[in-house]
Amino acid sequence: MSEKLDQLATRYGIELEFRELNGTIRHATELGKRAALRAMGVATETDEDIEASLSVARAVHVGEMKALENGVTCFMPDWLDRTWGVSTQVYSLRSERNWGMGDFEDLARYSEIAAEHGADFVGVNPLSALFFARPEHFSPFSPSNRQFLNPLYIAVDRIDGADELEVDEELLAHARACETVDYRAVAALKKPALIHLFERFRARAERGDEPEAESFETFSAHFGQPLYLHALFETLSEFMVQQGHGAGWYGWPEEYRHPGSDSVRAFAEEQAERVAFHVWLQWHADRQLGEAQHRACAAGMRIGLYLDLAVGVSSDGSATWSERELTIPSARIGAPPDYFNAAGQDWGLAPLSPATLEAREFQPYRESLDAVLRFGGAVRIDHAMSLYRLFWIPEGLAARDGLYIRYPFQEMLRSLSEVSNDRRAIVIGEDLGVVPPGFRDVMEAMKIEGYRVFFFEKDDNEYFIPPAKYPREALACITIHDLPPLAGWWGGHDLEVRAGIGMITPEDMPAARAYRAHEQRRLLGVLSDNGLLPERLLAVMHAEEAAPAELPYDVAVGLYQLMASTPSRLFVVAVEDLTGMTEQMNLPGTTDEHRNWQHKLPVELERLPELPLFRAIIGAVSRERPRH
C-alpha cells in the first residue's frame, strides 16, 4: 500500500524526498505522509481509506520551477544599482523620549539620520500585530495577524493630548534604563495612557469638536470586517487573560473559539467600546508608520522603509481565529535539521492552506503582501522558498520528522509580482538555508533580489568568497539578526553564549574557538587581498600572533568598505555594527535560554551620528556607493 500512499501524497503536493543542506537525501516517512494528509483533511487511517481518497483526489496544481512568461517580473526601478541602506530592530532603538522600546517616531528619526548620510533605505523587523494582552509574546516573526500592526510601537507622545497624561515616572525611568526591553513594563505604561487618550478622543467626537473623527471613521470603514474581527479578537484576548486563560484562542472555552458564535456576538455587543479602542490603536499605528515612510523619503531616501513579511502567523492568533479555513490548524511551519539545529526547527506558525489559497484565487496572500507594502518601498520575504514549498510539521511529530509541501508556485509568483508593481516596491527574497535546485534562477528572472551574507559566503575550501564575486541581483550584508554582530563574532561572544546554555559542550569549545581563530585569519586574508589589511595585523593573518580580543576599529571599517564595493544592487549596514554591539538579536534554536528580540542598542538615537565608528563606516560605505 506504500505505493498508493505515495501516489496520494504526490497528488496533494507532498514531496517524497528532499536534499538536506549537507547534500543528504531525506525521504518522507510513512508516518509523516499520513499525518500531513490527515492535516489536509484526507482520510488515510486504513488501506481502504487510502484507496477511497485516491479515487476522488485531483492533483494539486503546484506549478513548475520556472519564472512567469511574457516578461512578468516584480518591480525594479531603472536607477537601482549599488544602492545602500541601514537596518535596525525597531524595538532596540533607544532615545531620550521613548517609553522603553523603540517606536514609530524613533524609526522616523533614525530614517532621517540615515538619509542625511546618504542611505536610501532602512530595513526593519516585522512590525505586524502580536498579542496586545500578552506583551511577553514578543517575537516579531510569530505575528497574530500580518494584516495589522503592533500597537506597542505607537509613539504615545505623538498623539494629541499626550502632554496632559499622568505617567508613572518611576516605571518610565526603569523601562528606559533597562539594557533589554522590558515589554511588560512598556505595556504597563502605554496601555493606560492609550486608553485615556482614546476616551478623550471619543468624548470630543461625541461633542462634535474632534477634528480627526471623520478620518478615524474612514479608516475603520476602509479596512472593514477584517479590522473589526482583529479588534474583537484583541478584546476577547484581554478578557480571557483576565479570566486565567491564554491570550491565544486554543485555550479559550469552546463557545468563544469561533467569531460567529452566539457567545462571541453577545460579547461584541457588550464590549463595543473596547473593540473600538483596538480599531483606534490600529488607526494611530497606521498613521505613524505611514508618516515614518513619508519622512524617510522627504529626507532624501529613494526607497524608504524596507519592511519584512513573516513567513506565517501564530497558530492561535487573530488571523487563524478570524478565518479558520485559511490555515492548516494541525500542522506547523519549521525547518529540517541543518548544521545549526540538528533536531530541526519548529517555528510554531500555521501554514496557509494551498487548497484554500487556490479556491480564493490567492487573494489572502496578496492582502498580506499589500498590508506590508503600502507602508514602504521594499519588502523582505521571510523564507522566500515558501513561494515554492513549506516544511510542515504535522501534529504529533517532531521537527526532524517533518516534510515539504508544495504550493502553486506560478500563482504565488504572479500574486507577488502584481502587488510589487501596484505598490512600486522592490522585493528581496530571504533565500538562506535549504534552497530547491533552480529556485535562485527563478528569483533572478523574476527580479527578486537574493541574500548574500558575508559569514555564509564561503567556497568549497571554506574560504570567504571575495565580495567582488557576489552576484548583481542580490542584497549583500555582513550579518543578519540570526547571527552575531561583527564585534560579537570577532570576540567569540556568541560562542560563550552558546556554551553557557549548553549548545556547545565543554569538550567542543576548544575546537569552536580554534575554528573561529581560523575564520578570523581568513577574514584578514580577504582584506589583505584587497589592500585593506593594517600592517600590524599581518602576523595575526599568518597565525604568528593571536588576534586582538576586541574587534580592531580599522578591520570593521575595512570590511564594510570592501563589502560596499560588491556589484550587488543593494547593500545594508547593520546598526549593531555601527555601535560596536556584541549581543545577538536572535539565537535560533532557543526560546527562553537567550534574550531573543530584547536587546537594546548601547547608545541613544540622538548620539548615534557622534560615534566615531558610525561616522567611519557610514563614510566608507557612502563613498563606495554615492547616491546619484
TrEMBL record:
**Superkingdom classification of source:** Bacteria
Catalyses: Transfers a segment of a (1->4)-alpha-D-glucan to a new position in an acceptor, which may be glucose or a (1->4)-alpha-D-glucan
Q: What is its EC number?
A: 2.4.1.25
Instruction: State the species of origin.
Output: Faunimonas pinastri
- Keyword Glycosyltransferase attributed: yes
Keyword annotations from UniProtKB, A to Z: Carbohydrate metabolism, Glycosyltransferase, Transferase
Kindly state a single biological-process term from the GO annotations of this entry: carbohydrate metabolic process
UniProt keyword Electron transport, yes or no: no
Q: What is this protein called?
A: 4-alpha-glucanotransferase
